[in-house]
């Protein structure tokens, strides 16, 4: 399509966006949803399968209690009501990555309903309604080979791996989110970010978007002010936080161009392309009747004991938003300073560094200063920079003990990032320790005095400020390793000032 897209500001001046998000989370249980097969990532294709997850005739599923517990905890953290009785349902469709030709899911009786998640966007709180949280099983993976693009078009054959088939999958669906105008792309991103943090704090999934354990579909529609909501499209499998934001924005622009030209929006799924930031049409969207849902006859209904649910609720971890608020107070940071910690992805790193004995100010200095700078330069996430909170805490303890000054500490940190070992090892191996031993420094001091007789005379005559130049000379000959305070004292003592 060659249509010129309108400017974003014009689009949000004329249209009102409504978005909605459907997020799939692979749970980190040891076994699959309805059988005992292991769930760990990366085995040889079709080695983690059994008659149940291959859908062989006569096999019977048994629901995984750990997955049900994780789903209830997610529902509780999202302020949902937990069903006292609900059933699994069969969602019937044919696709080769689904060996049974139906997926066990939940339809009109989800486990958790009607909750919310508060997210902060540009300092404002936006409450996102949660429609439902339900439990289902993942599909296998198909690999199309022989073509240029890895897609089915042009491929000579397709391979299928059922290792993932049957892994417990939780689907979290928001209510439609109207009334956010130009902020729609940022709200979408903030929601997925906050949801990811909630799921991580619950310990129910490793929530890695790049590995597909957290996957997001984004619904977008536009309407004129005062009119009914428009037809929505569903952009599938957007696999990074940045892409969530880009997918909403690009779909808003595309739909506005269609509507401006007098066209109609087709209800369909669309694919987001990371490289161009565009979406292209997928299949036209099935409706619920196409799936011929009916209650799963091979599983008993789920009836979580309310006492058990209350127990799970009582021991939920502190929510990330409240946790961050508490840390901000404990660390004495302004909103702006806390925001820069968040933007750098440094909250947990700083928290762990402090837990290892460093002061909040020093922990923040290392992670937001030297280490953030290196992360930006090399384009890696701060958490993957190669230095751990324990190492940063050890580095600071060497500074506190006077064994490293700031400059030497930076050199040691370079070694840590390069994988040379612990700060103490690097300091020792590279001989970087501050020299404060007066015996060792006296020779360097005497040399500096001898080389600078005029400055020495000034100091003798009482111009103590001139000592700085001699301290500088000693620092130079000791490659920055002399303890400046000791050097100064030695100079003054030597010259009787
Ligand atoms: Zn199995």
From TrEMBL:
Enzyme class: ligase
Catalytic activity annotation: L-glutamyl-tRNA(Gln) + L-glutamine + ATP + H2O = L-glutaminyl-tRNA(Gln) + L-glutamate + ADP + phosphate + H(+); L-aspartyl-tRNA(Asn) + L-glutamine + ATP + H2O = L-asparaginyl-tRNA(Asn) + L-glutamate + ADP + phosphate + 2 H(+)
Biological source species: Micromonospora craterilacus
HAMAP family the record matches: GatB
UniProt entry keywords in alphabetical sequence: ATP-binding, Ligase, Nucleotide-binding, Protein biosynthesis, Transferase
Function: Allows the formation of correctly charged Asn-tRNA(Asn) or Gln-tRNA(Gln) through the transamidation of misacylated Asp-tRNA(Asn) or Glu-tRNA(Gln) in organisms which lack either or both of asparaginyl-tRNA or glutaminyl-tRNA synthetases. The reaction takes place in the presence of glutamine and ATP through an activated phospho-Asp-tRNA(Asn) or phospho-Glu-tRNA(Gln).
Alphabetical GO biological process terms: glutaminyl-tRNAGln biosynthesis via transamidation; translation
Family membership noted in the UniProt record: Belongs to the GatB/GatE family. GatB subfamily.
Enzyme Commission numbers on file: 6.3.5.-
Key word Hydrolase present: no
Keyword Transmembrane helix set for record: no
Classification via SUPFAM superfamilies: GatB/YqeY motif (SSF89095), Glutamine synthetase/guanido kinase (SSF55931)
Protein name: Aspartyl/glutamyl-tRNA(Asn/Gln) amidotransferase subunit B
Domain Asn/Gln amidotransferase positions: 348-495
Quaternary structure annotation from Swiss-Prot or TrEMBL: Heterotrimer of A, B and C subunits.
Gene: gatB
PROSITE patterns cross-referenced by the UniProt entry: GATB
GO molecular-function term, one example from the UniProt record: glutaminyl-tRNA synthase (glutamine-hydrolyzing) activity
Pfam families tied to this protein: GatB_N, GatB_Yqey
């Amino acid at each position: 399509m060659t249509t010129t897209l309108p400017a974003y500001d014009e689009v949000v001046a004329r249209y009102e966006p409504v978005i909605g998000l459907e997020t799939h989370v692979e749970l980190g249980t040891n076994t699959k949803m309805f059988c005992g097969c292991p769930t760990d990532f990366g085995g040889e294709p079709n080695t983690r399968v059994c008659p149940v997850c291959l859908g062989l005739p006569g096999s019977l599923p048994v629901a995984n209690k750990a997955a049900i517990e994780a789903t209830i905890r997610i529902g509780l953290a999202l302020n949902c009501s937990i069903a006292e009785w609900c059933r699994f349902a069969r969602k019937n469709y044919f696709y080769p990555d689904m060996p049974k030709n139906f997926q066990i899911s939940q339809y009109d009786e989800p486990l958790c309903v009607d909750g919310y998640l508060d997210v902060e966007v540009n300092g404002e709180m936006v409450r996102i309604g949660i429609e439902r949280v339900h439990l289902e099983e993942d599909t296998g993976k198909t690999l199309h080979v022989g073509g240029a693009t890895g897609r089915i078009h042009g491929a000579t054959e397709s391979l299928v791996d059922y290792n993932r088939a049957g892994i417990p999958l939780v689907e979290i669906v928001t209510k439609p989110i109207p009334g956010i105008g130009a902020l729609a792309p940022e709200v979408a991103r903030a929601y997925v970010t906050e949801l990811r943090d909630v799921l991580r704090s619950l310990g129910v999934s490793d929530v890695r978007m790049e590995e597909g354990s957290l996957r997001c579909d984004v619904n977008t529609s536009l309407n004129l002010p005062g009119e009914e909501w428009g037809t929505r499209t569903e952009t599938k499998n957007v696999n990074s936080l940045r892409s969530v934001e880009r997918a909403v924005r690009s779909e808003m622009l595309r739909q506005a161009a269609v509507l401006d030209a007098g066209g109609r929006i087709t209800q369909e799924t669309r694919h987001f392309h990371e490289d161009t930031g565009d979406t292209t049409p997928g299949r036209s969207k099935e409706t619920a009747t196409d799936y011929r849902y009916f209650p799963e006859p091979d599983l008993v209904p789920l009836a979580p004991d309310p006492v058990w649910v209350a127990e799970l609720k009582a021991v939920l971890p502190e929510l990330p938003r409240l946790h961050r608020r508490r840390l901000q107070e404990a660390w004495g940071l302004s909103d702006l300073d806390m925001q820069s910690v968040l933007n750098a992805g440094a909250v947990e790193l700083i928290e762990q560094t402090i837990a290892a004995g460093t002061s909040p100010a020093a922990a923040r200095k290392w992670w937001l200063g030297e280490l953030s700078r290196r992360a930006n330069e090399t384009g890696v996430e701060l958490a993957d920079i190669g230095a751990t909170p324990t190492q940063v805490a050890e580095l600071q303890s060497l500074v506190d003990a006077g064994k490293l000054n700031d400059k030497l500490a930076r050199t040691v940190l370079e070694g840590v990032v390069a994988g040379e070992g612990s700060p103490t090892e690097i300091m020792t191996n590279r001989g970087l320790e501050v020299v404060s031993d007066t015996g060792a420094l006296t020779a360097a001091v005497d040399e500096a005095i001898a080389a600078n007789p005029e400055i020495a005379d000034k100091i003798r005559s009482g111009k103590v400020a001139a000592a700085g130049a001699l301290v500088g000379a000693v620092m130079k000959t000791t490659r920055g390793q002399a303890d400046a305070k000791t050097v100064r004292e030695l100079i003054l003592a030597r010259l009787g000032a």
